[in-house]
């Protein structure tokens, strides 16, 4: 039978609505990161003076009697779930609709944050923090490719900057949010509030018409009319002689074959990813960078309180990071678009901005005057946050379209497992050893110089933009690959109608 395309609006989403929704989700996600690090939620242990006067602890650390190492572990526990789930979600995106996978992930995230507020000891909250990582895994590997697909060509880096601006802004807002809720109500309500805010977006992932990604087959949607009703097919439209009813007695061997195919696909995709020198160097620099940023975000308020005796460290650090994070991240994106977004220019901006940021942040901790510290640290943060859009632009454009979810997933896994995951507890151990927050902060900040050096190597790699390369026809499953974004202004999805 003949099939004629019929014009239909692909989705309620427009590119700008999609960007706005993803920015809000990303903001809530990082509010959680900031909240658990805030003095109001994180708290402190009880203390006793030499005269025998004791004060009770507060927050998570005080309620569960955690030492600095255990306290640092809580900030990194989500990485266990993220490490396991990120590659899985990235691989499933080739056989399942990516937008539905985001809905699944956000549902897990909502449940896990509500569980954090209901935890009763160190191990219970640690397990729920791991589940937070599972929920985050689907979103972090798939959101950026969606944005990259649908952003205007001349503003791709700027759109990515808007999305990644939510990382520092959300973290900083989390400091303020956690400090206020933890101090005036109870730290548990901070987690319950986050779960409430995320719930509508988790539901949205299931009720809205799915979107697909360029370079992936699992997200393609074909609508076939069968009289009164319409059937939505994920993948290819059925042949004219095929039945629409799936057999419920699929052979077990077929299921085993599918699992083996998924593992085989993942292996070959990983090998292809590791052969991309530009991508590897970019991630190595990102690891060094995130080692510092992760420790700053967790220990920053506590270090500021101890070095400069800030009575309102949560609010001060939060406000400073919000302003510098927003302007620095947006500036990085717009500057790269103005320079012409190429691999070489991206690395020039990454290395130069990180070097200047390292100099100002290192100098800030050398001053004992609070106002001198704030001025220098603010300038340093502006330069440091200017890297967010360029580094993720390289992750997306140094690989073929079908590898983008995996490239984002493995980038995120790498910067966490080698970056902020070990940095929080290691800085806690270092502080326990030197017992001087100023020295600890200077040692930590010096690692930014290493990040600048690694990214400088990328300038000489002569990388090319591979985001528009056509996929090879000999894919593992010999499937057609979608190369057009769903939210294209000039075209809409054309469902097939069968008379």
Structure description:
It is a single chain. This protein is mainly alpha-helical and 499 residues long. It has helices at residues 15-37, 39-42, 59-64, 68-76, 78-92, 98-117, 122-150, 156-164, 166-184, 187-207, 252-274, 277-308, 313-339, 343-366, 370-385, 388-397, 404-434, 437-445, 447-458, and strands spanning 4-5, 47-48, 54-55, 221-226, 229-234, 496-497. The chain is 68% helix and 4% strand. A two-stranded antiparallel ribbon has the order 1-6. The chain starts with a strand and ends with a strand. Mean pLDDT is 78; it is low at 1-10, 218-250, 472-486 and 488-499.
Helicity level = 55-70%
**What is the rounded distance between the termini?**
8 Å
Poorly predicted runs of 5 or more residues = 1-10, 218-250, 472-486, 488-499
Main β-sheet description: 2 strands, antiparallel
Radius of gyration equals: 24 Å
Tally of strands: 6
Shape: globular
On the 0 to 100 scale, the average pLDDT is 78
Determine the number of helices (DSSP H or I, runs of at least 4 residues). Answer: 19
| Main sheet: strand order | 1-6
Query: Quaternary state, please?
Result: single chain
